[in-house]
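Milestone M4 deliverable, item 7.
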Amino acid sequence: MKVFVVGGTGAIGGHAVPALARAGHTVTALARTPKKVAQLSKQGASPITLSMFDRAALTEAFKGHDAM
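Output delivered:
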């Protein structure tokens, strides 16, 4: 399953991202800073940097994912 996680470095997402990756899912996660990009990469996610307030960009980023 291809999963997009908004808040992948937050309290819940920080646990969900590595769990999803370990379970064999393809994970894309929102990152806001270079430090967060590195953290998500180490957890097995493909980080994407954009504003979560940019509705058009989020809509485009969600395409092709099975779950958000």
